[in-house]
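Ex. 9. Protein: GPN-loop GTPase.
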Amino acid sequence: MTTTHSNTTSTIACLVIGMAGSGKTTLVQRLAAELSTRDLCTYLVNLDPAVIQIPYEPNVDIRDTLNYKDVQVEFQLGPNGAILTALNLFATRIDQLVELLESREEQVDTFVVDTPGQVEVFTWSSSGSIIAESIASSFPTILLYVVDTPRATKPLTFVSNMIYACSIMYRMQLPLVVVLNKKDLVSTEFAQQWLNDFDTFDEAMQQLEGDYSSNLARSMALAMEEFYRVISCCSISAATGEGMDELWNCIQKAAKEFSSFRNEKNHISMKQEAASSEMQSQGASSSQETSRQRIAKKLICQPTEQSKQITQDTFLQRDVETTSLVEQMNEEEEEYQALLNQFSTSWPSSQ
Ligand SMILES: Nc1nc2c(ncn2[C@@H]2O[C@H](COP(=O)(O)OP(=O)(O)OP(=O)(O)O)[C@@H](O)[C@H]2O)c(=O)[nH]1
Ligand SMILES: [Mg+2]
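Predicted structure tokens for GPN-loop GTPase:
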């Protein structure tokens, strides 16, 4: 912990998440160093039970309460399973962490939480939700999703990274900042363009000669456009500290959006409760709704002001685009099937 709390505004909590090796830990160290030069006080939490060395002094360290190797032996797990289980065990004590953070609130400007590279913690395991939800119940909480940009220069890798970010944001219902860690190796211009303009992404996809995976990535990217509109994004180098001003601005902006995300979350929960009691009263026949209708409803419930402007027309338009993509894929499937038939008839018998 450095310096003393600078002002009376709420303490922001940043959960730093991202793929393995993307630069989360380096970013936590850099962010703490940068904020201390602005006389802002950070409180650092390490939630990676398997890390051996970390380049900062954590105020709370999961390794003090859980021995990752013991978890591996006791539950007979591999390394990834042991990390998930350690987080699950830690989540059972999350009230103690939150109490500790609350007791430091007066002195601290920002809580920064470092997490393990097993992104499954936040995509499907319950511990990620419990930890995020508990912290968010006491502080304005945001997600910093770190992207290893040099490893995301291929459109497919990029879009799959974004799908993770999107699924985490909607699961946690927290504002998300995409942090493009350039690692001093690449320009992040391509990623900024792909996030802002589908056509530039599409151009990059066309260079892949229209195979099945490129069609899939293209339709995914189309579906992701709404997500791209509600996130903020900045380019940094965690090692050199480049871009930290922009990151801090994004953090503050995202923290301001926190309450609208929470209101939206409460609104969605109320709607879900109302829908489920309506379903119960109408009986099983009411489950006739198609999955597309359910997805459309979900998208309509996106948690920002802009998203409220999404109209039914957007979905109709998207449906047309999706349908034509599906038709195109079906045609290609037929061609592929014909080729396969030809191949199997011309294949010499092994006898
Ligand atoms: N050159 C350079 N290297 C970086 C940068 N950020 C991270 N790295 C390096 O990338 C490697 C992984 O960085 P970490 O910060 O440990 O990444 P992580 O996301 O915490 O990794 P896990 O916790 O294992 O998921 C380290 O060798 C870092 O030194 C950067 O901006 N520039
Ligand atoms: Mg790390």
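Check your answer against this statement. The CA atoms of residues 15 and 320 lie 38 Å apart.
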